[in-house]
Amino acid sequence: RSPLAQPRNVVGGHLLSEHVRADGQIPQDARDAVMQELRRAFRPEFLNRVDDVVMFAPLSLPQIEQIVELELGKLKARLAERQTVLDLTPAARRFVAEAAFDPVYGARPIKRYLARQVETVLGRKILSGDVPDGAHVTLDVRDHKLEFAIGSPEGGRESRREDGGGRGGPRRHGVHHPRRRGVHRKDVGAL
After folding, report:
1. pTM for this one?
2. Within the chain, which residues score under 50 in pLDDT?
3. What local confidence, expressed as pLDDT, does residue 77 receive?
4. What one-character-per-residue DSSP string does the chain give?
């Protein structure tokens, strides 16, 4: 016995996407239509050797948001080693879920999106000294873009935003040498 995985975008996937109910159930007429598509796409000799056909409903937005949280949990654990906290507002979670999810590729692009848009940006902020150990970083959405609000380690209140607003005025990147502040490239590479 060998499993055969057929991507849903090849045979009948569009039928499942169009007819799935709000509760995630696939109605019988959609199942029948997919089976009919399979019979058209594959020879009877092949289908006779298939033990079972399993149909999956597309992911819902709340499920995608849960995947975003699971993936960010790995980053949060690495940041915890630096006593740094990363929080995501509900708006940011939804923004990432909508921006990263692709119905054709499923949830796979979420990890790449988070690596580029969150981990890389946050890593650069750590290297530049904008995010000290023990900081509280909140990820939010402003003007249809992700925004990092960086809170001070002692009070946890927002002290700097990515756009340079907040207490202390704009930060100049590169003014503080990261190695003099105890941050080393090897530390950030683990993020």
Report:
1. 0.63
2. 8-9, 156-191
3. 94
4. -------TTTTTHHHHHHH--TTSPPPHHHHHHHHHHHHHHS-HHHHHH-------PPPPHHHHHHHHHHHHHHHHHHHHTTT-EEEE-HHHHHHHHHHH-BTTTBTHHHHHHHIIIIIHHHHHHHHHTSS-TT-EEEEEEETTEEEEEEE-TTT-SEEEETTS-STT-PPPTTSS-GGGGT--HHHHHT-
